[in-house]
Specification:
By secondary structure, this protein is an alpha/beta fold. The protein is 36% helix and 12% strand. It binds 2-acetamido-2-deoxy-beta-D-glucopyranose (NAG) (2 copies).
Length: 368
């Protein structure tokens, strides 16, 4: 009785509060849109928590791609002629061919951009364009600085049919047919937890001056995996090259960023062009940290997977069972690698099975 009465008395107040809240929320949303950060705020920030369930649920309606529009992307794989790069490229290309024509795929043509300056023995196996490496000494021993230069040359020379490009790396394996996750002027990228522009403001500001806006404009990404419209990449790539060389030449930046310098360079270069990425956590997974392949698209096997025979991760300590790409710097891993012991996560088991399936089916696997 008392409850009902109190509520009836309270309801106008409640209504007022609700209305006020609604106005406040609307105002906030409008403010965000005006700030030209709509994508980042809807997709970027929020995706970190909601992505696992429905990666695109938070996208503004106008950004959701109409389902019927096919927009194929070209797969561009930067590589060297080192044995270590070659065997990974062969596995990568094998799985591209397996997934390319499956339903849901927007995967188009494929080019290995070989930035060693001369052809190698995989020219007939994998569609390849040879480009020049940086002039001797310019990369200061940091070979991935060749990547931006490779993209600049490729975009200039190649006749690319597709309007979009996926920048991929040799240690990527397609586990599902990959749709075009980009949308018009918004490329799609994988957010890396260790790329933190805000926490490196002092350094980032050397390359991203204040007049361009807050450092939060810089996405926590590298150049790969990214699906991006060709014309946007055409603008970003020369800047990316310029920024990466300047970062490498600056001792403080070089020391702080280390092996992720070239990722920061891409993130900064794209922000300098006002390009914001749709951040897609489901773009890829990284064993052994991600335990299940789930609905993700690419396995990135950059981390070593070390386990004891009880199936427990012994990361950083050589495991009784292990798969680590770095165990095979000088040549390909053998066919038919032993599967991990029971208890090892599904992501790692899938990785090894897919490597085995590829090596079993690639002719002359052991000979190159
Ligand atoms: C990068 O661009 C700046 C400004 O446009 C220019 O002054 C500089 O020489 C370029 N640096 C390199 C390494 O290309
Ligand atoms: C792969 O190795 C397993 C033992 O680890 C063996 O039982 C199997 O026959 C091998 N398969 C092939 C195709 O060589």
């Amino acid at each position: 009785m008392f409850g009902m009465k109190a509520m009836r008395r309270a309801s106008p107040v409640l209504l007022f509060l609700l209305a006020a809240l609604f106005c406040f929320a609307t105002y906030n949303i409008l403010a965000m849109m005006r700030h030209n950060r709509a994508i980042r705020n809807f997709v970027g920030a929020n995706t970190r928590s909601v992505l696992e369930s429905d990666p695109i649920v938070e996208m503004p309606e106008h950004v959701k791609k109409p389902k019927h529009v096919k927009s194929p992307f070209h797969i561009a794989l930067t590589a060297t002629a080192a044995p270590y790069s070659k065997w990974q490229c062969r596995i990568m290309y094998y799985w591209y061919k397996q997934k390319k024509d499956l339903p849901g795929s927007d995967m188009g043509g494929f080019t290995r951009i070989l930035h060693s300056g001369s052809p190698d023995n995989l020219m007939d196996e994998i569609p390849t364009m040879v480009v020049d490496p940086l002039p001797a000494g310019l990369d200061r021993g940091y070979v991935v600085l060749n990547r931006p230069w490779a993209f600049v040359q490729w975009l200039e020379k190649a006749a690319i049919e597709e309007e979009y490009i996926l920048m991929a790396e040799p240690d990527h394996i397609f586990i599902r047919p990959l749709p075009n996750l980009a949308h018009e002027r918004f490329p799609a990228a994988f957010p890396f937890f260790y790329i933190k522009p805000e926490q490196n403001e002092k350094i980032v500001r050397k390359f991203y001056p204040e007049e361009h806006g807050p450092v939060t404009n810089i996405d926590p990404i590298g150049n790969s995996p990214v699906i991006i419209r060709k014309d946007l990449l055409g603008k970003i790539a020369p800047t990316w090259m310029n920024v990466s060389l300047r970062m490498k030449q600056d001792p403080e930046t070089d020391k702080t960023f280390g092996w992720v310098l070239e990722m920061y360079a891409y993130a900064v270069a794209s922000a300098l062009h006002g390009v914001q990425h749709i951040l897609r956590k489901d773009f890829m997974l990284q064993p052994p940290w991600d335990l299940e392949t789930g609905k993700r698209f690419i396995i990135h096997y950059t981390y070593g997977c070390d386990y004891n025979l009880k199936g427990e991760l012994t990361y950083g300590k050589i495991g009784e069972w292990r798969f680590d790409k770095r165990s095979h710097l000088r040549g390909p891993p053998p066919r038919n690698l032993s599967l991990p012991p029971p208890g090892v996560p599904e992501s790692v088991v899938t990785l090894v099975k897919m490597v085995n399936e590829a090596t079993a089916n690639i002719p002359n696997w052991d000979t190159s």
